[in-house]
Amino acid sequence: MRMYDIIMKKRNGGTLSKEEIHFMINGYVKGEIPDYQMSAMTMAIYYQGMTDEEMTELTLAMAASGDQMDLSGIQGIKVDKHSTGGVGDKTTLVLAPIVAACGGRVAKISGRGLGHTGGTLDKLESIPGLSVAVEGEDFVRQVNEIGLAVIGQTGNLVPADKKLYALRDVTATVDSVPLIASSIMSKKLASGSDAIVLDVKTGSGAFMKETEDSILLAQKMVAIGTLAGRRVVALITDMDTPLGHNVGNALEVQEAVATLQGRGPADLTEVCLTLATNMLVLSGKGSYEECMAMAKGAIANGSAFAKLKAMVAAQGGDSRVLDDLALYGEADVMEELLAPVDGYVEHIDTEGCGIAAAMLGAGRETKEDTIDMLAGLYLAKKEGDEVKKGEVLARLYTCDGSKMAKAKEKLLSCYAYCEEKPVVMPLILAKVTKDGVERYDE
Ligand code: URA
């Protein structure tokens, strides 16, 4: 078999066989196939696409390229959630405890933030003492004992994706549905859960800006997961506006706590309950209506909040800060952003908000940057809200005052106003299962 012939076949619109796909991925990971041939292949895939079977073989070959998590020691159905990333997206911190409180098993590997999007591991590490490095038997024991663990990647999971993603990043082949779908699903399959709920974000703060593109990506990921023998559902959720009011690590943990205590913002609560309900249904805990009632009950009776505290304590964190958020402390510098006009907030440039938060120190530009855990934004006014000139639009927090002016200017530029109350998009736009697409935005 020669890589040259496989590239030619895909370039001409052919369908690659299982053997060809495995040859290509194994050879690339071993260094036998050079970057220049693989970049020709990713460009051929970009233009010619892949069938569902090709995508599944590509995903399986990538998932098998390194270590795979063995979760067989965990009793029951293991359920995972993956978000394609956004601004203010603290859903894992809310839904994992809800699912665990309802008897589900969440053994979750999360990531760090980069660029304008935040990462769950950074948010968790804002809790004093908490470690995301829980390995092997300890991970399995924690999930068996309390129903959830959220940790960072250990071992050498999916090296093929690490190499391929770096290559795609510099060859203008990131935004290819088969390549994104196989990249995300290879990591999900290697992480070992039986069931997966995908939260595919759409809008100005998301990777996919258009709903139709998000639905297509979701369909492909659901098809891959199903063909690989996993239970998979995808929800298309709005990321045209930040989720909740808080953006930044400690600020987001505080908002997640409020949501678990039943005091959260309506948008965040709705998205978390919907995702958690789907996770419980996939875990075989009951019908959709029964699982929604259980999820709401876990917030109302405090059992979900108790699970978050149990997880924090199990991972070495000081769970007292969750009961008394004042123990977190506040950033050294806080400034208010005031509305420049009377009217309604028509739109908030969500990616811009993420950048403003990162400029304050809440995110990193490079993997080596350190994070200011207390930095970030409180968005007092959201899309559709009425504002009066001089009223507080947002509060900005940082421990480095020299970062304030530029971040404030950036955040101000994110707000657009109108005179009439605008129509606000629904939060959950569609659900994709192996049986089809259910749309809620029509
Ligand atoms: N996230 C991933 O993990 N992979 C992609 O290709 C795009 C987003």
Describe the structure.
This protein is α+β, with helices and mostly antiparallel strands and 442 residues long. The chain has three domains: 3-49, Up-down Bundle (Transferase, Pyrimidine Nucleoside Phosphorylase, Chain A, domain 3), CATH 1.20.970.10; 79-323 and 427-439, 3-Layer(aba) Sandwich (Pyrimidine Nucleoside Phosphorylase, Chain A, domain 2), CATH 3.40.1030; 332-418, Aldehyde Oxidoreductase, domain 3, CATH 3.90.1170.30. It contains 17 helices and 14 strands. The protein has helices spanning 3-11, 18-30, 35-48, 52-63, 91-101, 120-125, 136-146, 159-170, 177-190, 211-227, 249-260, 266-282, 288-300, 303-314, 320-323, 350-359, 404-414, and strands at 79-83, 106-109, 148-151, 195-202, 231-238, 246-247, 333-338, 343-348, 376-379, 386-387, 392-398, 415-418, 428-433, 436-439. It has a five-stranded mixed beta sheet, with helices on both faces. It has a four-stranded antiparallel beta sheet with strand order 6-9-11-7, with helices on both faces. Helix 5 (91-101) crosses helix 12 (266-282) and helix 16 packs antiparallel against helix 17. The longest helix has 17 residues, at 211-227. The chain starts with a helix and ends with a strand. The model has no long low-confidence stretch (mean pLDDT 94). Residues 165, 179-180, 183-184, 207 line the site of uracil.
